[in-house]
Design brief:
The complex is a heterodimer. By secondary structure, chain A is mainly α. In chain A, about 65% of the residues lie in helices and about 0% in strands. Classes of the chains: A mainly alpha, B mainly alpha. Chains A and B meet through helix 5, helix 7 and helix 9 of A and helix 3 of B.
């Protein structure tokens, strides 16, 4: 096997102190997927508890802690860092044609800050647990008996710095490390999406840091900021919190949107329809994302004037989002579509994310939100966006770049089966929640009216199917590492730069500066059955052979 | 923005190529610090005068903004930097203004209902206290 980033150096320290973006990306991948596993297990506990209205497997207090930890770990330790930290770190410099990110040491620091913040956040369980929900709303979070809040907030504060440093690194990398010929409009769309995400990370994340710092100061020094007992304003906390946390939704969803652009182009073997529109729509979504935070607060006591303004602004986000969806559909139209696993995830994404986006319209309208607020309708909506969009996009990207990251091919059969199970399990779990939410089932309730039981039971069965799909995925991905076929350099026939280097890539990515062309020009490649992958027309047939 | 020197990628190469830091003459730096000190005196002096109607806050914020502009332009070299960096700074200020503006607008909108509630609670407390005082 040729020298690559996995074999370049050996030993624990060669990984622990590595400055190689690919190794850091891989460490992020393992760590964030570990967080996903923990938070997923907590989700199963929550769903099992809700099988019947009465106490089933845990007490009410433990239930509150379980859904809080599920939400906090999923948001802060998994979805926010997973795509930029894992796939972004691995792919961005190679896709750009660079040898690394602009600040490799800062990149490693980001990872260790993530580890530190994550450890502190999880340790908050030991100091009494947190049962405020992942939003830490005041006055719940300022009550003295909730000791774990300070520790959890400290953890999230540190995680915020990790996110800022990653964003800063990506902004500088994309501005300064592009090779000759890589103009802005030759950037692959995943990089446009990552760039827009990085801007949000840099500009919005400090606000959550300040908010949590103020919360900690209020709790430890009794300064009245948010707590009405001390003369503070709890609605102000919600303004602070959502000024970050709504843009954070776009940190979670923009990179997967970029992944879907790559998948649809590669598996339809076509130039993306409306490249510039898709590129600018990423930046537009990032910009609009800053203007709509008040739609989380329609029932908070926020003034009617502000609610009307935020409602109107919220609808504007649908424009750049629809631009992407329609351009993808136009790309697929009359395309030469091949249904390999990553493309199946892209198609799943189109269904689930569209449902997530369209149900957001009900919640963005003041008159319906009054009824649907804090019901399971909201739970279903944001799971369709974050999981149906964010996680499905991540899974598509993971299957797409897995051969590049590991040098191994997974079995398509079980992979397609897992994708089908994810689709069935996900929709079984969450679609029914729209129904019970619209009938008035409140979110976060431990007990409920027996008339809702059938919906909860369907949802719980769906969550078990979803869990089975993820265990199957874990099995065949690990199996591929042990017995998988050697991956060719370009197994999908994609034309962005990462497919020009070997699988897995060498330590320095490229031995010579790569030739930058149109990232979506597929005319120069031909399938070579000998290597089970694609090679440039005219290149020797044995190049990149297993 | 992409040029040949920018391609010097990899570990420790980020500052390579033709990077020539701009040197600001000492007289200018001392001049700026003199202006900053003078404006600090003006801030303190302005605070001694009651301008009424919240004008003191406006004056203090204006002076502070001028001082911040001097620091950004001269100490942080923004005056000689690429316009893109100035754009990013202005964008950050815009987002801060947006956040504060919306939050304060909202607070001022619902403040009346809070005041009414406080007034009602005060009246209730007074009424409860009066019979006790009569005894």
């Amino acid at each position: 096997m040729k020298d690559n980033y996995l074999t370049h150096s050996k030993g624990f320290l060669s990984w622990a102190l590595t400055l190689d973006h690919k190794r850091i990306g891989l460490m992020y991948l393992v760590a964030t997927l570990g967080s996903f596993f923990v938070a997923g297990m907590l989700a199963l506990v929550v769903r099992t508890e809700l099988w019947a209205p009465d106490p089933t497997i845990i007490s009410a207090d433990r239930y509150n802690q379980a859904f809080t930890l599920h939400g906090a770990i999923m948001v802060f330790l998994f979805i926010i860092p997973a795509v930029p930290g894992a796939l972004g770190n691995f792919v961005l410099p190679i896709m750009l044609g660079a040898k690394d990110v602009a600040f490799p040491r800062l990149n490693l620091l980001s990872f260790y800050l993530w580890m530190l913040g994550g450890a502190i956040a999880v340790l908050s369980i030991l100091s009494g647990g947190v049962d405020t929900g992942w939003t830490f709303y005041t006055p719940y979070s300022t009550e003295p008996e909730r000791l774990g809040v300070v520790m959890m907030a400290t953890g999230v504060f540190i995680l915020g710095f990790s996110s800022i440093f990653t964003g800063l690194n990506f902004v500088v990398t994309i501005h300064k490390l592009r090779p000759p010929g890589m103009t802005w409009f030759r950037l692959p769309l995943f990089l446009w999406a990552t760039y827009a995400t990085a801007l949000i990370q840099v500009m919005a994340t400090p606000v959550i840091g300040i908010t949590l710092l103020l919360l900690i100061l209020e709790r430890t020094m009794m300064i009245g900021i948010f707590n009405p007992k001390l003369g503070g304003d709890p609605v102000l906390f919600q303004h602070f919190f959502w000024f970050y946390s709504h843009p954070a939704v776009y940190i979670m969803i923009l990179p997967p949107l970029g992944i879907i652009s790559e998948l649809i182009a590669a598996f339809c073997r076509r130039e993306l329809f409306g490249y510039k529109f898709i590129a600018f729509s990423s930046v537009a979504i990032a910009a609009f994302g800053f203007l709509v935070w008040g739609h989380h607060m329609f029932t908070s006591g926020q003034s009617t004037l502000m609610s009307m303004m935020f409602s109107a602004l919220t609808f504007s986000v649908s424009i750049p989002t629809a631009v992407k969806i329609f351009n993808w559909l136009a790309t697929m139209y009359k395309g030469s579509i091949s249904f390999e696993t990553p493309m199946l995830y892209a198609l799943t994404f189109l269904f689930t994310f569209s449902i997530g986006g369209l149900t957001g319209i009900f919640l963005g309208a003041l008159s319906t939100d009054i009824h649907l607020h804090d019901t399971y309708f909201v739970v279903a909506h944001f799971h369709y966006v974050m999981m149906g969009g964010g996680v499905i996009g991540l899974l598509g990207g993971l299957h797409y770049w897995w051969p590049k990251m590991t040098g191994k091919m997974y079995d398509e059969g079980p992979a397609k089966l897992a994708c089908a199970l994810v689709f069935i399990g996900f929709n079984t779990t969450f679609f029914v929640q729209f129904v019970m939410g619209s009938q008035g089932m409140p979110r976060r309730y431990y007990n409920y009216d027996p008339s809702f039981q059938i919906y909860h039971q369907v949802s719980t069965v769906g969550s078990y199917i979803l869990a089975a799909a993820f265990f199957l995925m874990l099995f065949y991905l690990l199996k591929s590492l042990a017995t998988g076929r050697q991956a060719p350099d370009n197994p999908w026939g994609a034309s962005t730069l990462e497919w020009q280097c070997s699988s897995p890539p060498p330590h320095d990515n490229f031995s010579t500066t790569p030739t930058v062309g149109d990232p979506y020009d597929f005319s120069g490649m031909t399938y070579d059955p000998q290597i089970g992958g694609w090679r440039p027309k005219g290149a020797p047939a044995a190049q990149g052979a297993a | 923005m992409s040029d040949a020197s920018a391609h010097e990628t990899g570990h420790g190469h980020a500052h390579g190529g033709g990077h020539h830091p701009h040197v600001v003459p000492m007289w200018l730096l001392f001049g700026v610090i003199g202006i900053l000190l003078f404006l600090t005196v003006v801030t303190v002096a302005a605070a001694q005068v009651d301008l009424g109607g919240g004008a003191n806050v406006v004056v203090a914020v204006l002076i502070a903004s001028v001082k911040a502009a001097f620091v950004a332009l001269y100490f942080m070299h923004l005056r000689w930097d690429k316009p893109f960096n100035a754009f990013i700074l202005l964008l950050s200020i815009f987002f801060l203004a947006l956040f504060l503006g919306f939050a304060l607008l909202d607070t001022s909108q619902y403040q009346d209902s809070i005041d009414v509630r406080y007034a009602e609670e005060s009246i209730k407390a007074l009424k409860a206290a009066q019979p006790a005082a009569a005894h």
